[in-house]
Each structure stands twice: as structure tokens, then as C-alpha cells.
Amino acid sequence: MKTLFIDDHDVEAINNLARKLHPLQKFDKNAVLRPENRWENCGIMMWTTPAWVPDEAVFKTLYYASSESDDPEVKLDVTGAPIGGRSFICYATSEDGVNWEKPSLGLQDYDALTWRGTAIGTDNNILPTGIPLGPIYDPHDPDEQRRYKGMGWGKGGGLTPAVSPDCLHWTYLDVPPTPSSDEAHFGYDQEAGLFIATVKHAGPDGRSPYGRSFCLSTSEDFENWSGIELVFHADQTDQENGEERIRKFVEDPDYLTPLYNRPEEWRTDVYNFPVFRYEGLYLGLPVMHHWTGKHPPLYENVDSRKSVELASSRDLRQWERVANRTPFIELSPVGDGSAYDTGQISVVNGPIRRNNELWFYYLGVRHRSQPLADTMNRKYLNNFAMSLAKLRVDGFVSLKGGIEWGSVLTKPLVVEGSELRANVDSWRGRVKVEILNADDGQPIQGYTFNESIPAMIDSIDEPMRWKEKPDLTELQGKTVRLRFSILEAELYAFWLAD
Questions:
Q1: Secondary structure letter of residue 396 according to DSSP
Q2: How far, rounded to the nearest angstrom, does the alpha carbon of residue 213 sit from its chain's CA centroid?
């Protein structure tokens, strides 16, 4: 198990080091799953990380597709929104996570017409019964009919578990639904054998301090789910941060200006809350929803901007914000108009690892609100797609040293491996480590600061060495502390290995 520096769980003291959040880095021209067909011409989105299926050497995903009305004229409801559109759950595969295929499945008869006037028919990738939250590939379930798992709004008023043998044909289980509003996330902690759902809800008592909030429900068998617990919501600090971020979008000409902007209506709540297991802790990606003003004429929704933060927890219930709530990923400037993520943004429930990187899929939406003229001119088409951003493995947070030595001292730990390894970026500087007696804090002979061979490299997996001690063999079973010293370098993680 790796030790990261996202929180202080394993840290005794930090001296003369900065804790640095590393935001996600967006791929250039980063939309990887975008609208291409008539049944998805408004946009596509997904909530769940694509599933890697080793036996087939392929990623599989399900996505929500939205299409406009078949009516040749744009018609609006009383709120000014276009009517008659439809939505579907669709299937896609990829060998590399970037280039996606949308195979013709022949499962759903789609009655819209091609530009030639001929019926599209079953030449599409639509699932007759699909689930928006999934798939989770579960090779350990002895029942092959439950090889893939997901959740959807199969029963009124909440999320319902569903299973599939092939990711194409889904059956909802006959179990009570988990109460949820229209936003939720679903995942699986394989190490703990725990299925996790975070659902948008006001809370068990029907109230929430600041609007949209998120509750937790878990299950060990996928059928019996715990009652919901309110675990994450906005607070007063979020209101202050929200005002600062809204001003950026209003005052900076590089960013899309909200269509509706009434400062008396500014507020912040939580729009999504995906969570995932990473090493010894849980990480959350709260999407902070910064209201700028209500939509006229019936105020059925609000204009807003989004920012995604990073949070951590050891038990899924008590959450800490990371790096003083600095955004982990933000909206893009308008630029040449090719970016999707200029109006809204949201991240799926965790990364996939590709070589030395973590890849995060995220939703980008061009507009939250549009003027009536743009709606009548069908500028709601091609409005949202899935994009990709990446991060160094373990690269969420580092401890960064400057031009003078700084150090981090760990809490006592038992040496259970023969090697100490680290994720470091120290090619400009150096990282050294000494091993101390846990009781008196004195350096152990052979493992002192002066005997440590400095790491001077950029590596996600670097063995730490000493001049006369190539490994930790003679310390196995002992309780010690580690003191890393850092000079003009960054330390992301460390761990014991055999």
C-alpha cells in the first residue's frame, strides 16, 4: 500500500515544504467520445469510468445520448426549452481508451430518417434496456449472468441495481431502490468488496444546509443496500469561493459569460460527487455548482458555472477538502470555439491507469444557457461530449522542497518489505531518506541522512538506497519512522515492497 500526501494520516510533521495540488492536464483537442449520429446529435455524456475487460483486451462503456426532435421546426415549451427530444443508452468499445468504436448492434429499431429519407432502423448502437451508471466488470461473481453491473432509474424515485452477462442485455433486480434525484454515481471498491453509490438528495431528514447535497449508500452483495447517509454538502466557505469564481467568468473576456447574472441570487451547492478508492483512501471529485441567476420566465433551473475540487476520506463519511479547495479541473476558455468544456464540467467516478499516467474522462458542455435566438437556430446541437485529462501516477499532491532543505517525518510504521520505493521528481534537486528508531527518534546506523544516496531523477518507482545498505532486509519486522529530506524536488508517494 502506498502512502500519499493528500492528507496527514501517516504524517507526523512537515518542515519547510509546500503541499502542492497538481490539477488534471487536459489532452490537446481532448474530446474523445463525441456526437456523430442522428440519435446523439445534441450530445453524449457518461458517469462511470470505462470498464477494462482483460479476456477481450478492450474497454467497454455505456453512455447517455440525447437527440433533438424529429420535427423540422424547433418548438419550445413554456420555459423556452426545445421539446420533443429523445434520449438513449448506447454502447461503445475501445482498445486504447482514446479511439472509440460505436458498433452497429441491431438491437433497437430507431425510426428516425437519414438525410436520404430512408429509415435508420437497427443500424445503431442503442441498447433497448440500458443503464446510465455503469458498467462495472466483475469477473469474480460466480454467476455469469451478473458479469457486468450497473445502476439506473429503473423504478420510480431512486436508483435500482441491474446486471448483464454481456454489457448489452440488462435486467433490473427486484430489490428496493436507493432514493436519489437526477444525479448519482456508482462504483466498486474491489479491495473492500464494497459497492458504492453517491446520490443527489436533500438528506434523510429532507433538508440540506446548502441546496444540492450528496448521500452515501453501500452494499456488499449488490442487492441489499444501506440506508442513505448525508456525507457531503456545501458550506459558507464554498459561498465565498463561489463568488470569487463567478466574478472570474463574468469579468474575464476569455471565458464564457453567464447568460443570466444576478448577484443577489449567487450561491454554491454540489452538483455531482463521484468517489473512488485509491491506495489506502477514498478520493472524491465534488463538482461545485456556482449559481449565477435563475432562468426566466418560470425559474425552473439556474444558469451557473462549475469547478471540480478534490476531497479525501478514510471511511467514505468524513471528508476533507484538499489544498484549500483549489480546483482540480476547471472550465476552458472559449478560444477558437472547438472546446466542449466552456459551460459545464463533470468527472466520471475515477481514473484508468495507462502506463505511467492516470486518465480521467470528464463531461464538457459548451453552454449552460443559450439565448432564445440560438435555441431557435439549433445551436443546442453538438453541445456536450466526453473529454480526457491525465495525471501522473500518484500525482494528486506532492510535497515540494525549495532552495533550502525541507523534511517530512512519518508516523511509526512496521517494515514489512525489503525495499523502500518512492515516486519522485528530483532531477533538478535531490530526495534523501533516513530511518529512525520509532521510540527515541534517533537515526539507525547505516540508514542516516549522510549515508542516504540521493534520488536525482524523475521516476514513479525509484528505489531508495544507502551507501552500505542496499535494502531493508535487516530491519524487517521493526517499527521505525522515515524522514524524507527534499531539496528543489517533489515527493508524491512512498511504499515498502519485496
A1: T
A2: 17
In three-state secondary structure terms, 264 is helix
Q: How many CB atoms lie within 10 A of CB 78?
A: 9
Q: Is the peptide bond before 135 cis (omega within 30 degrees of 0)?
A: yes
Which residue is associated with the grid cell 467497454? 60
Rounded CA separation 446/437 (Å) = 12
pLDDT digit string (tens) for 262-285?
Answer: 999 999 999 999 999 999 999 999
Q: Is 498 helix (H, G, I), strand (E, B) or coil?
A: coil
What is the structure's pLDDT at 154? 79
pTM to 2 decimal places: 0.95
Q: Given CA atoms 53, 311, 316, 484 in this order, what sign does their dihedral have? A: positive
Q: Distance of CA 32 to CAs 62, 273, 296, 454, Å?
A: 14, 23, 34, 41
Burial of 133 (0-12, 13-18, 19+ CB in 10 A): buried
The tens digit of pLDDT for each residue in 271-323 reads 999 999 999 999 999 999 999 999 888 777 899 999 999 999 999 999 999 99
Smallest CA-to-CA distance from 127 within 83, 158, 95, 162 is with 162
